[in-house]
Amino acid sequence: MNKGGKLVILATATSLALLVGLVLLLSGGPPRTGSVVSLRPGSVPAAYQAWLSRAGRLCGHVSAPLIAAQVEAESGWRSKARSSVGARGIAQFMPATWASYGRDADGDGVTSPDDPQDAIMAMARYDCGLARTTARLPGDPTSNMLAAYNAGPGAVLRHKGVPPYPETQEYVRRVLARVAHFTDIPLTALGATRFGSAVVATAQRWLGTPYSWGGGGPNGPTPGIGRATGIVGFDCSGLVLHAVWAASGGRVQLPHLAATQATEYGTPVPRDQLLPGDVIGIDHRDGRGISHIVIYAGRGQVIHAPQTGDVVRIAPLKNFASAAWTIRRYA
């Protein structure tokens, strides 16, 4: 219940184990939690599953679900796909790029963009290189990497982020929106509480929903405010507000403000006890304090509503490694 504008949670001794907490991290760096993300069983063609899993471990900037979403966007899983500009294969490589990144991954003596195994590994290899090339740019690192794959790294560097090309912006949106479809997050294996599992499950339901400034309420996505009045969706705190409200059965109602959600509600827990469903306030140390909030989904991943033009999606927690964190868990 609410009392005097502050949230008061009444709990019995047996329910205290489900109550949640705050972790104040004064230095960057993700918790000591594995960051390898598995493919959801049955979500990709069986012949490619092992190769996608292998590709997803090439560097910290990629995952098997992300590569799968890219392959789907590039070719729809057609190994002999051709584009009007000369791109070839399941990963749609141009000849010059293939010459730099193509390898005989499966050891059959042939290196070809039409060989799905070769192409999947080359896609991940190229992604890793693009992530390094665009690492110093502002904005979301994964979005910049994907934009560089579609439009070329030169365009992304010139525009200091995702360029204003409709095709590229739609490509980034489409890939990010589909990552969840390929992602397997077995929360029970990660030690999540029943409440934490419910928070994550609620947020996952809205993956791919548009970002809308001021959008989101107890019952789900809503029209935003200002320039976002025509967009039905969530901003970062609107997503958290809804997920916590739904998971608590309406018992916990948070304000629609990231900084307040991350500092005025919850109970402290040690950093090494971070669990799925915990909510992390992000302070980029730019003088504005906490300006973003995300939901920890386990295995080094978060679910969040990133920014205008983006969608609710899964992202690596280490994207926020340089920021200060205030982490809460609610019940």
Structure report:
The structure is a single chain. By secondary structure, this protein is α+β, with helices and mostly antiparallel strands. Helices cover 34% and strands 13% of the residues. The protein contains 10 helices and 12 strands. The chain has helices spanning 46-55, 64-75, 95-101, 116-133, 141-151, 153-159, 166-182, 194-205, 236-247, 258-263, and strands at 2-3, 6-7, 22-25, 38-39, 183-184, 222-223, 232-233, 279-283, 290-298, 301-304, 313-316, 324-328. The strands form 4 sheets. Strands 3-12-8-9-10-11 form a 6-stranded antiparallel sheet. Strand 10 and strand 11 form a beta hairpin. Helix 1 runs parallel beside helix 4 and helix 8 (194-205) crosses helix 9 (236-247). It starts with a strand and ends with a strand. Residues 1-35 have low confidence and may be disordered.
Q: What's the arrangement of secondary structure elements?
A:
Layout: E1 2-3, E2 6-7, E3 22-25, E4 38-39, H1 46-55, H2 64-75, H3 95-101, H4 116-133, H5 141-151, H6 153-159, H7 166-182, E5 183-184, H8 194-205, E6 222-223, E7 232-233, H9 236-247, H10 258-263, E8 279-283, E9 290-298, E10 301-304, E11 313-316, E12 324-328
Antiparallel strand pairs: 1-2, 3-12, 4-5, 6-7, 8-9, 8-12, 9-10, 10-11
Helix pairs in contact: 1-2, 1-4, 2-7, 4-5, 5-6, 5-7, 8-9
